[in-house]
């Protein structure tokens, strides 16, 4: 069987003007990941990334720590869903019951717990399919986008290949939904636990895919540096 390693990007710049940039912690996480893969002797036959900067930067920082690594291919199917668009589009309907939501979401770095609570609430509305709005990609459409990316990988893969996909938490969540059949709400409960640069492994034979492991971050745990274990 072949393996697909789903790798969440390193810590981004939450609360900064541009989120889509790795923080210094995120760069270090990616370097540690690359060193870990090298020590394990995992030879990657192919590497794929979404086109977001934090995904590509994670890939490049990790691959530079490996003695042999293929060139990085880009497939937009593995981009994160547009969280800003979800918030912007669905927030107005939430304001009557959450009048402080706009202030909290604008100042997320100073209100992390409340930001997460409100963001989870908006995500639940989005994945329910009951609040679809014109111009906002639906959850179902996003899942189909990710599924298309997975199918392209499988069509191009040969048996026993090791393929790394540098992506984001939402993408991994969509793949969990597709592969395990877990309800979307339950999948997002797992989403909130996905550690930056964690590894989730899929095993494949032809078009058959199964989940072998989820959210492994032993490469960070072994360093005994809690500051490297982050979720955003």
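-> sequence recovered:
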């Amino acid at each position: 069987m072949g393996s697909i390693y789903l790798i969440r990007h390193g810590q981004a710049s939450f609360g900064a003007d541009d989120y889509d940039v790795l923080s210094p912690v995120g760069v270090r996480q990616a370097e540690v990941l690359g060193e870990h893969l090298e020590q394990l002797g995992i030879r990657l036959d192919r590497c794929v990334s979404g086109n977001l900067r934090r995904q590509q930067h994670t890939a490049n920082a990790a691959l530079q720590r490996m003695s042999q690594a293929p060139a990085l291919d880009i497939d937009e199917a593995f981009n994160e869903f547009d969280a800003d668009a979800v918030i912007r589009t669905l927030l107005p309907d939430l304001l009557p019951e959450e009048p402080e939501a706009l202030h909290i979401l604008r100042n997320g770095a100073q209100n992390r717990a409340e930001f997460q609570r409100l963001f989870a609430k908006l995500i639940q509305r989005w994945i329910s399919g009951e609040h679809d709005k014109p111009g906002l990609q639906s959850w179902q459409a996003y899942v189909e986008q990710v599924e298309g990316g997975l199918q392209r990988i499988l069509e191009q893969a040969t048996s026993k290949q090791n393929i790394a996909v540098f992506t984001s938490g939402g993408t991994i969540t969509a793949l969990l939904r597709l592969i395990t059949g877990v309800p979307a709400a339950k999948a997002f409960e797992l989403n909130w636990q996905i550690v930056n640069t964690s590894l989730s492994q899929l095993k494949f034979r032809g078009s058959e895919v199964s989940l072998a492991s989820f959210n492994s971050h032993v490469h960070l745990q072994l360093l005994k540096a809690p500051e490297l274990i982050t979720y955003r």
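The first strand starts at residue 2 and ends at 8.
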